Amino acid sequence: MLIRIRKPSDCATSEITPKATFLNRRRFIATAAAGAIAPMLAPAAAWARGKALPGVVKGPFNTDEKQTPYDLATTYNNFYEFGTSKGDPAKMSGDFIPKPWSVTVEGEVGKPGTYDFDDLIKPHMLEERIYRMRCVEAWSMVIPWTGIPLADVIKRLEPTSKAKYVAFETLYDKERMPGQGYAVLDWPYVEGLRMDEAMNPLALLAVGLYGEEMPNQNGAPIRLVVPWKYGFKSIKSIVKIRLQETMPPTSWNKAAPREYGFYSNVNPEVNHPRWSQAKERRIDTKTSGISALFLPKQPTLMFNGYADEVAQMYTGMDMTENY
To answer: What CATH number does residue 169 fall under?
Structure first.
């Protein structure tokens, strides 16, 4: 995330983060103040593995870095629709039934409508792509995602010349997603990309990970993966895609605009107001009873290491203003 640097005297803490957001994230903020995440990395319980996805081919852009173990990637994550603690999504999403599923397409497209999950996905070959994923809380993972290029779906929808942005929306159902019963964010969760970002070959609509169907806690049945941006840009459990002429609102920008901008590109040179973004802790090893505080740090790469693929989209932009 590209953040404008401010002096502490520029604004009150209450102006930086809404009270509801602060109170519901108190566990995280307390550890962030120490410059690291404190919850234990050992998963509380093993998660049942999903069905293998057939016909998956090796996709482009794969990193050969050590992958995060499956049980860490599926039990240590953010999905506030199921709770604000890192272990909540795995614990609270077991009863969530992700299929049947449909995605509504609206706006500046030649083929609007409501698409069944299979109709949206099956015309495309599933690819596995091993991406680095960087979270704003200064931790990162390496995950093999399975999905289809977002650009392929957009092309199929026949965008008009007025389509400048792509907006996404998560399912809103407090019965199925109990975390939505709390005023942590303005539900439903919404996100967006500029059209050239959405058409970049790196942007992926993921339907699985580790060669298996997407687990509930990771965004079943379909989510966005945008590896050069901070993790919260990769919206989960998508039910609506809208192509439009104006920049769409995004959930974290609405909640705390001084901290979370629309672009949210990984930039180690610009600090978050409350912690540094220069280094990260790579969660790639099973640990038992060892706090994340003791994992070694490594330098964070510009655009999360994908500068060759995406930097040209931001030529001429002040990335401290357009954070």
So the answer is: 3.90.420.10
- Both structure tokens of 119: 């109709």
Q: What DSSP character marks residue 220?
A: S
Question: How far apart (Å, rounded) are the C-alpha atoms in residues 78 and 189?
Answer: 13
Q: Which two tokens stand for residue 322?
A: 């357009």
The answer as to whether 25 is a domain residue is yes
DSSP 12: -
Per-residue pLDDT tens for 300-309?
A: 999 999 999 9
Task: Check residue 138 and give left, alpha or beta (phi > 0: left; psi -120 to 50: alpha).
Answer: left
Structural element, H or E, at residue 127: strand 127-134
Tell me how many domains the chain contains: 1
In tens, the pLDDT along 168-187 reads 999 999 999 999 999 999 99
Query: Domain limits at 199?
Result: 8-314
Amino acid 49: pLDDT: 82
**Band (2; pLDDT cuts 50, 70, 90):** very low
Cα separations in angstroms, 172 against 48, 74, 90, 121, 246: 25, 22, 18, 22, 23
Overall pTM surpassing 0.90 (yes/no): no
**Locus of tokens 């803490």:** 13
Residue 105 · residue 169 · CB < 8 Å? no
DSSP 159: B
User: What is the DSSP track for 256-311?
Assistant: -TTT--SS-B--TTS-BTTB--SEEEE--S--SS-BGGGSPEEEPPGGGGTHHHHG
Query: What are 243-286's pLDDT values in tens digits?
Result: 999 999 999 999 999 999 999 999 999 888 888 999 999 987 76
62 pLDDT more than 80: yes
